[in-house]
TrEMBL record:
Residues 109-138 are annotated as: Disordered. Residues 129-138 have a biased composition (Polar residues). Pfam families: DUF190. This is PII-like signaling protein. It comes from the Bacteria. Belongs to the UPF0166 family. SUPFAM superfamilies: GlnB-like (SSF54913). InterPro entries: N-reg_PII-like_a/b, N-reg_PII/ATP_PRibTrfase_C, UPF0166.
Amino acid sequence: MIPQEASLLRIYLNANEYWHGKPLYQVVIKTARARHLAGASVFLVEMSYGAHHQVHDVASEYASFELPVVIEVVDAPERVEEFLRLELESTVSEGLITVAPVRVLRYPGTQKDGAHSPSESVGDMPSLRDQNPSTRGTTTMRIEGEAQRVTVYIGNSDTWHGRNLALTIVERCREMGMAGATASRGVMGFGGHSIIHRAHLFGLSEDVPERVEVVDRPEKIAELLPVLDEMVGGGLIVLEEVRVIRYLHDPKTKK
């Protein structure tokens, strides 16, 4: 069970890094599962560079598998710190590791894989709207300063009325006039069932993780939360306070 006030751990590394002959990202995922952490997901990154200032991108390096990946783990702050101290300090020699405070709005209970059913709430957790006291607002084309980011972790087999849930959430955000939404598909992960899912070659995959991120003003996020409450059955939803440096959009320009 994850407390409402949790930590989001992000680990940035290359997919071709190994630990005792095994891909490091797989070792991290399996170690997190062995330590009974709530869940962990691995996502591919389109392009990046790090301490060596060498640019890696999916298009040019897919064949060599020298691809940047990010591992995301959400759990209680003390469990994340323990995982960092006892496991990651000895295994991750290169890369970037960050920890950020988040609020858990929904965490799945045990249910049949791929089934879309109401999830088990965290403790006596109220509805998503009740957990975000921001008032309702209107669509804005300019965002700067304090904002919020909602991240939804689900599986690619999750659906909403027969359609992929992640894509449907993005479309619903657009209909609601949210500033933007991004859906990403992972390559490996586990969640409430502690079953590891991974992508395979030639497009064949199990129930790999998917992630939807939405950033907007708190009042707009408050409008979105009851929609997510209805649509997301067995998924993890976390809320972060962020600062937007710049977001500008000309409503006369179609993109």
